[in-house]
Write a structure and sequence with these properties.
The termini are far apart. Helices cover 28% and strands 23% of the residues. By secondary structure, it is an alpha+beta fold. The model has no long low-confidence stretch (mean pLDDT 80). The protein has one domain: S16 Ribosomal Protein, Chain: A. InterPro entries: Ribosomal_bS16, Ribosomal_bS16_dom_sf. Pfam families: Ribosomal_S16. Keywords: Ribonucleoprotein, Ribosomal protein. This is Small ribosomal subunit protein bS16.
Length: 137
Amino acid sequence: MAVRIRMKKLGRKHRPYFRICAIESRNPRDGKVLEELGSYDPMVKDTDARALLKGERINYWISVGALPSDNVRVLIKKYGTNGTHLAEQAAALERLKVSRPTAPAPWTPPPKPAEPEAPAAEAAPAEGEPAAAEAAG
């Protein structure tokens, strides 16, 4: 009997939900399962809560010869008992902060030299217009 550890699809349209199951390899995807080993909800925003795995049972099935599917292998690697997801990600970000020098300040063009202001010449009134002083007095 060839046993696979794979995902059984539940949920509805545009709202997937998966159960991780030990299942006979010849059974259909949603067929009879030998044991349910966890769940995976890709729609959960909190990364820690996406996958819930029974690590001891998964290790048992792998020890007796069950082969995980490619997607389940990734989930076990990320969220399993020896998961690399959060601890490795945090360590990588710390290494990146230490190893990468801070970026230099962005280049800004030098300020333009101030042009000397031309003396403000009072506008002479046109010949046809009376001056403001004459109109006031």
